[in-house]
Amino acid sequence: MNQELYKNRNVSACFAAAYNLFITNLTKIARHLWMPIVAFSVAYALLLNVRLHLLLHVDELLQDLGEFFALWSGNLLLNLLLLSAVAWIVSALMSRLNSFGLKQNLRRGFVLTGFSLCVAIVCAILFAGVCGAVYLGLSSIAGMSVVSKVVIGIVVLVTLCVMIFFLLPLNFVSMKYFMDGGRLLPSLRAWYHVGMHHVGLLFATVLVAFILFCMLSLVFGMPLYVLTHAQIASIDGLRMGDASILPDGFSWMMGGASLLYGLFMAFFILWNILLNYYVYGSIEQSERERLKTKINKQ
Q1: N or C: where does the chain have the smaller number of CB atoms within 10 Å of the terminal CB?
Q2: Which pLDDT does position 134 carry in this prediction?
Q3: How far is residue 162 CA from its own chain's centroid?
């Protein structure tokens, strides 16, 4: 699966290289990585259905706390399984892109997953703290007027933008960790500093990839959306005394639609890894040329 990695590329060139590598090796990817792909898709489909059941039947579940806590425990377990499946997918693909074996890449994948989870928790706490402080401050001074709501909205948006900006270099850090072979925490500061120097390229690729993901989600997620809407309408009708409008085998249809979306998510993750792979190569080549220029000037 190797193509020329260390080469200066702009955003469109990174997307083109990732697309070409993904398409030309699609059958190989499906054949060699089918186990983590299936594991991720099944875990994702089960998680979607458990969360949907919790949201749609929360009133009934609150009357039966045993079932409620059982479903929440299942939700937590499926989240852990999904994170493990993501680490497996990433590690399996990276073992075909770098010089390390699957065992070492798996260890790195789980370390990186744990690190990402810690970063997410810290960001969630900071976000809640900032927004909560602004909300309490404004409500105590002027109450919840229209101006206060606008200010809170602006604070939420600015906080999200700032967090995303400072999280962007971690895309480079993640790929560097897999490709370099060094330890994560001792090298984190230096790798993060390099990624911050190329935050423009990272931002552009993440933005375009996110737009592409949203467009494809509309296509592959449409069956799930239609079935979910039908289930919501049926539950509302049952609560008003009407008969169920759902056909026989509806749960199988929901399972199939969820599995389809899970497969889409798995393959999008694989493609996104290849995109980050070429972004990493472009940044590394830029840093090499910058260092060479600096040495020549001396």
Answers
A1: C
A2: 78
A3: 18
Residue with tokens 């020329």: 4
Tokens encoding 25: 């090796």
